[in-house]
Design brief:
By secondary structure, the protein is α+β, with helices and mostly antiparallel strands. 31% of the residues lie in helices and 32% in strands. The longest helix has 15 residues.
Amino acid sequence: MTVRTFDLQASDVSWMRQLNNAVVPHIPAIEAGALDRVRKAAALAIGVEVEGVPAGFVLGMDPGADHDSSNYKWFQARFDGFLYIDRVVVDSRYRGKGLGRRLYEEAEARAAANAVPLTCEVNEVPPNPGSLSFHEAVGFRPIGIQTVDGGCRSVVMLLKPTERRAQG
């Protein structure tokens, strides 16, 4: 299986949106224009493909990004430095093949290069036990809970410390 990561471009938004909206309610639905704005604001915008077929992506934000997510703002209010994983999606056909870990390795390398932790959230209501288990397995720990969407959802706020790594 040939796997390649690449920087996301505007031309990738269509398939990104399709993958994203296929996993609702675990990740909020998003329109193409809004997804492209998130991609542009992201400090980390990486896609992954298998045999030339787009199979997933990760979008991550540094502090001060033009991003209105209440979860992002939760971390921004508490930390001076972090890399917030806004969304990570892997096509269901490729789950369990290490692509999620590969995307998180990209994010961790960027966070470590900047000596900041990785942060994200996972739905508690509606429950997403598979995602929570994955995040715990790769070293995230819960640091809080936030209720969002007018009380319709709650999310577990997660943090993974990183160690500074030399770039190159």
